[in-house]
Amino acid sequence: MPDDRPSLELYGRSDSAGLALRRGTVPGRIERVDVLDGSAVVSTTTFTPPVDGAAADADLVLTPWRRRPTAPTVVVHYRRHQPESRVPAPSARGSFRLDPEQIGDRPMTQATPDGSPAQTPGPDLIGAFFDFGTSRAVCGVFDRRRVRGSDAALPAAGVERARSLLPVQLFATDDSPDPAQEIEDRTVGIPRIRGEAWREVFGCAPLDVHHVSHTRPRTSDLVVTGDSVDFATDATGERIRGAKRHLADLDIEVPGTGLSGRELFRSVYARFAELVADELNLPRAIGSLSVTFPTKLPPDKRDELLKVLRTLGGKVEMNIDEAVAAAGFAMMKRLGADFLLGVEAFRLNARCPEGGRAWEQPDEWSKARAWHENLLVLDVGGGTTDCALIKVTVVDATPAAAGDSPGRFYTLQPQVLASGGRLNLGGDRLTAQLFTLLRAKLGIRPGDTRFQGVEQAAPRKQLFQALWEAADAVKRKGLGAKSPVAVRVRSAAPGSAVQGSDAVPFVWPESPDGTAPAEPSATEVTVTADELAEQLRELVAEITWLAGGIARGGIDVSGGGHESVDRVLFSGGSMHSAALRRGIEDGLRRRFESDRLAPTFEVEFDAEFAKTGTAVGGVYLDAVADLSPDAEDPEVIPELLSGISYLDVDASRLYVNLAADFHLRKGSQETYPEPVFSRGQRLELEPGGRAYAEGRVSYPVRAVLAVHRYDVSNDDAPDAESLWATHTMLQEEADQLAVAGVNVRFEIDQEERITLLLCKGTPGWLLEGPEVDTTAVPHGLVAPPEHEGAPATLRYSLHQEVYQVGVGLREREPLAFAGDPVPAGGLLLHVAARRITLYWGQPGAGAGTGVERDAGPDPAHREFGTLADVPEGYVWVSLDATGTLRFHQQRPRRRTVTAPLDLVDAADGVVFEEVMKSGLFYDESKDPFSGTL
């Protein structure tokens, strides 16, 4: 076979398919090959005995071959060669995504047997996570071109640091093949040193173990020359700072670029992808990537950015915000490289489901199969602050068939309990305050640094840049230690050196044409420690108020008197300031005491990954699960019984409840007290990954409908900072709708995208599809209206689950109660579960034909009639006013009109629906780089 033969070729035939694998494409014995079309299985072929794909080329016949896939993925299940291993090799998977045109001609590759990267024609095996911040840009990378492992896969740097803590004579001269055992053996009788050694091991980010890396951080300052956009670290020219702030409005021109935000960000991300490809030595830019976003960037703004980025080609997703991505990095470090050690260490300090730890609730803790910690993440960047309280749960998901096997199957399940942030709160605001202070101390007139709308703006821009650099240096130098220290600033003429190495230089910009503003009146000034502390105080107070409120709200959602915040994670470039970290930590402990939360949390900060950790953590949550098997896979059970353990990362539960309160504005200074949506409110999951929640109350029609998002309980009046979504209409239209009896309702999805529902009565559904036979139910499920204008009602309660419990029956909370109204537009019930049977509560002896709220006086002798089994994949049950029952795979569409005024003459249940727009706009007064500072 020639050397240039593709590593993988798939040939489709009428009844079977051929799969040709070049030697080493799959580094092990091939046991099974699946061909998928999206999520549907087209072909599954098991090979007995396994085919060795590492030793020789493999030509495999795949049967059955049901159809030619339109979105093909080839999944190869194999076991690596581990002749010297003490345990059998675990099952591994290699995934190859193809375009339909790739079948039979386009080459694909996978890892080589020796672990070195194979030559790839495209980056299909590279996952990328872009974090474009206000000040810095970085990319996390998940590289599956090289998949390898080790029985002792502890980070080398962490092991070396651990070794340095112990006396030299305790270690052998040659390297131990098992560092974990070595540390344990060499620290017998020295528990303090053993603890410190393991802290060093777990303090090292295990990037190599998870095939994760990151690019070098770049400044987010841009250089724009015509249509060319580059990063200031890679090009020369006039710097454009703080471009990320223009995500608020992509249609306006970004000053100094000649480009709209839409055009600019398309070029920025395209260039970023090229730079990542250069660092990874890829033949072209990455075509599949995820993009992080600030927590408070509304969904319609995210949608606009995604539309821009998807024009670049490939797959672009935006699912994980910055705070959650930072938490992903902390989780990766927490469990370490050897996850069995990591899980054990996690369990010892974690809480059982009731909220107590081993020393607080020993009985409950020892019986638990799940343990969790409450992690408060504070990500403070240059322009934004993101905060989230995340319940980090490790679940023992070992299948029951494995019993008490020596091998265990653990699942890491993070869940966001509460989140929020600020779009104009971060290190740049502190620099702007010091900029203003320095300008006054140096005797520079405010107008000399303001260049917006000035005809000859270049000299003022240069002065602004020079003074900004000096203010930023004062911030880093004066606030780098735990307590502020005084900083001297000395000005100098262009080309001259500043005397004294301890002074921050402020070089007056050169002006060849004499148009520069007058020189400063002072040549040297000092920013005192007290002045720095004063500038820091307001920022610390605002961040502490935000984080404390989110923590309180999240703990209230989680319930349980034993719950509190266990760890606080500081991340983001601005957290390099030790004074800022100390101020926030002290403020949070005081706030927790006043809120009756335990102020005993641990603080975590990794200076090395303060910025890059967000990108790495996003990759960890987004892609690492690809290398984990399914706990329900029958092949896993024998491996668990033989002592092999697994860890799966399940990020699908990140957003299963709402993370904030949403209130409708009632007047200019108040909102309705009853929230539209509440923090902790569960989201109903649908097939395909979508989730939603319906508003709990209806509201009168108003010309201006404004929904505010409150990270912290809405003690303050609604303002632009809390405004989340709006809809406006003419007052005359609102009056007509109100007279016609139209009310206002809302719906929200997992991305906090709010849909406005204007409706008459209760929103109705287009109920179509086969009817379920209910003739066995006496008089039917639905009782007719008692009088004109009244709704039909349920005659019997509907139950989803009924259990035989010894003597008698036990049912869970009914899906719907007898007597509940059945609106004209129908009743829709969510019944997502594995095995569902619908029951109706039969009436007791002597009962009439009316509505039966109880099925007899004695609960021990209740009876239930069986309606039907809900087919697999059907998650909705509908019941219309005539008593017709139906099952649905997707939520039915609503009965809608195209314009609000069409509701005036519409029947009850008809709806006008529209996704609301955010009230976010670009505010130049909050942008220090707009030329108005």
Descriptive account of the structure:
The chain is an alpha+beta fold and 933 residues long. The protein is 22% helix and 26% strand. The strands form 13 sheets. Strands 8, 9, 10, 11, 17 and 18 form a six-stranded mixed beta sheet that branches. A six-stranded mixed beta sheet has the order 26-25-19-20-21-27. Strand 12 (222-225) and strand 13 form a beta hairpin. It comes from Streptomyces alboflavus. Residues 80-122 are annotated as: Disordered. This is Molecular chaperone DnaK.
CATH T-level topology of the domain at 126-146 and 213-317: Nucleotidyltransferase, domain 5
Q: Beta fraction of the residues?
A: 25-35%
Rg, Å, rounded: 31 Å
The gross shape turns out to be globular
Would you identify the CATH architecture of the domain at 126-146 and 213-317?
Answer: 2-Layer Sandwich
What is the distance, rounded to the nearest whole angstrom, between the alpha carbons of the first and last residues?
A: 68 Å
Structural class: alpha+beta
Integer average pLDDT: 83
Q: Outline the biggest β-sheet.
A: 6 strands, mixed
